Amino acid sequence: MRPRAGAVTGTTLAQLGSDALRLLDALEIDTVDFCGISMGGLTGLWLAVHAGHRLRRQVVANSAARIGTTEGRTSRAEQVLAHGNK
Length: 86
Prior knowledge:
Elements: H1 13-26, E1 32-37, H2 39-51, E2 55-61, H3 70-83
């Protein structure tokens, strides 16, 4: 299955974390209280390792150091692209 036009594919955890840092910089926010759920939790863990000085407090909920398998994530992404988030 081909991704729809404009779909983001192959996004890495480093890209998600860097995007969060760029957003904080654009908003001129030096430090935050961060709460991440699922993939947001993984992003928060990346932030803690690579930019911990930007976090005052952190909550990671319903997350893990690794979520599922590559096959499971790919299958879910294909389902969402084809049918929406149902």
